[in-house]
Amino acid sequence: MLAPRLRLAPWTPKLGAIVQVFEQLRKSVPSNIDADYLRRFNIAPANESYVIAVLRFLGIIDEDGNRIDEQSDYLYTNADGFQSGLERAIRTAYSRLFDDMNDALQVERENLIHWFRAADKTSELVGKRQASTFRTLAVLAGNGSLPARANAIKKPTAASDNARKKTSKRSTPKRNDTPPFPAPNEAGDTGSPEKAQGGHEVGLTVRIEVNLPSGGDGATYDAIFASIKKHLMS
After folding, report:
1. What are the residues whose beta carbons fall under 8 Å from the beta carbon of 6, sequence distance 6 or more?
2. Of 127, 143, 48, 131, nearest to 88 (Cα)?
3. Are 207 and 197 in contact (CB under 8 A)?
4. What are phi and psi of 59, to 5 degrees?
C-alpha cells in the first residue's frame, strides 16, 4: 500500500497579502472565504488562490472555503491570544518541519529554503517563497519582525499627498503670455520686420482682400488703390 502523498507547503508571491488577510479576518471572520471575499478588500489581486491555499493549509477554512470554527477561534481574541493561537496552527500545519527542526520559528531563511526544497522537491524559486511564507506566518505569531516587502500596502497620507501636489505644481511649465511677435505700433505699421525678445527678427505678412464694385469706373479704382498705398504701404 502506498503512503499518502504529503501536502505541499503553500506559498504566495505577495507576502503583504498574508498580513492584509489576517488584519481583515481579525476584524470580521465570514462563514466563507473565497476569491470574491479577497477582491472585496483588494487583497492579493490576481493572486487570491495563493492566499486561500495558505488559509486552508492552516485549517482556518475547509476545501470549499467554509470557516472551521474550532480552528479559527483565535482570530476573535486579543493580540496575545491571536499570536498563541496562530502559532499552534502553524505547528500543526507544518508538523513535518517541526519534527526535523523543533526551533523552526527561529531558523534562518536559508536553512528553511533547503528544507522545503528537499521535503517537497520544489524548485529554488518555490522553495524561497515557501520559506518566506512560513517566516511571515511565524512573525505574525510573534516570532521576529516582518521584512519590509511583507508589510501591507500603506494608503497615502495627507503629508505625502500634499508633497505630490507640490511636485506636480513645480513640474507644470509656466505659461508664456508673450506674443510670438511684436504688436503693431501706434501708426499701424505692420509691414517691416521687428526684433522679438532675444534679438531675433520676425517677419509679418498681412493679406488684404479688396472687393471692387462691379459698376465702378477707372477713377473709382484709382482712388481705392491710392488709399491702400497711403494708409498701409507708406
Report:
1. 96, 119, 120
2. 143
3. no
4. 85, 15
Phi-psi region of 46 (alpha: psi -120 to 50; beta: other; left: phi over 0): left
Tell me the per-residue pLDDT of 143-162, one tens digit each, with 9 for 90 and over.
987 655 555 444 444 444 45
The pTM of the full predicted model, rounded to 2 decimals, is 0.62
Spatial contact of 18 and 140, defined as CB atoms under 8 Å apart: yes
Q: Is residue 131 within 8 Å of 96, Cβ to Cβ?
A: no
Q: How confident is the model at residue 224 (pLDDT cuts 50, 70, 90)?
A: confident
Residue 86 and residue 53: Cα distance in Å, rounded? Answer: 16
Chain centre distance of CA 170: 23
Give the helix/strand (H/E) hosting 139: helix 124-140
